[in-house]
Amino acid sequence: MNSTLYQKDYYLWLEETAKLLHDRLLHEVDIPNLIEEIESIGRSEKHAIQSNLIIIILHLLKYKYQPEKRTGSWLGSIGEHRDRIDISLADSPSLKTYIQEVFANCYNKARKRASLETELSIDTFPLDSPFTLEETLNSDFLPE
After folding, report:
1. Which one of 10, 83, 85, 105 is at 20 to 30 Å from 95 when CA atoms are compared?
2. Residue 132 has pLDDT above 70, yes or no
3. How far apart are alpha carbons 20 and 17 in whole angstroms?
4. Residue 2: pLDDT above 70?
């Protein structure tokens, strides 16, 4: 298959690549771009995990350190992003190791965003997460 199709019409390239793979015409597959796409999918999955985790931690921090401003939208956001991570981990259980590896970094990002959004000093929020990863992902957990 002509690799210029990849640049000209991505969706058509996907359809053609799938058809070639289905028909076992491997010699016609645009291998370099297929490899790039597969690697990109893996990166996207990891980015989604990080993004969802940061949002959960952000709202847990706001919930804990601004109890007078608690809203249903915070709870809704926590639930939605926990669900997204649950779905990702169900589809790709190997990401459980990855989420453990990035938890501290995600906490640091959420800590900075919480300070900006709440206008509380960064020192209000501990250097290390006051919640474990298990608590963060637990649908029944809310900090008090």
Report:
1. 10
2. yes
3. 5
4. no
- Of 6, 114, 138, 129, nearest to 65 by C-alpha is 114
Task: Tell me, yes or no, whether 144 lies in a domain.
Answer: no
pLDDT band at residue 102 under the 50/70/90 scheme: very high
**How many domains would you assign to the chain?**
1
The model's confidence at residue 1, banded by pLDDT at 50, 70 and 90, is low
For residue 36, being part of any structural domain is answered with no
Q: Could you give the angle at the alpha carbon of 43 between the alpha carbons of 37 and 55, nearest 5°?
A: 140
Q: CA-CA distance, 109 to 122, in Å (whole number)?
A: 11
The stretches of 1-144 forming alpha helices (DSSP H) are 4-8, 10-22, 31-65, 72-91, 95-118, 133-137
What tokens were used for 14? 């996907």
What is the tens place of the pLDDT at every residue in 19-73?
Answer: 999 999 999 999 999 999 998 888 999 999 999 999 999 999 999 999 999 999 9
Q: Is 121 exposed, middle or buried (0-12, 13-18, 19+ CB in 10 A)?
A: exposed
In a domain, 107, yes or no: yes
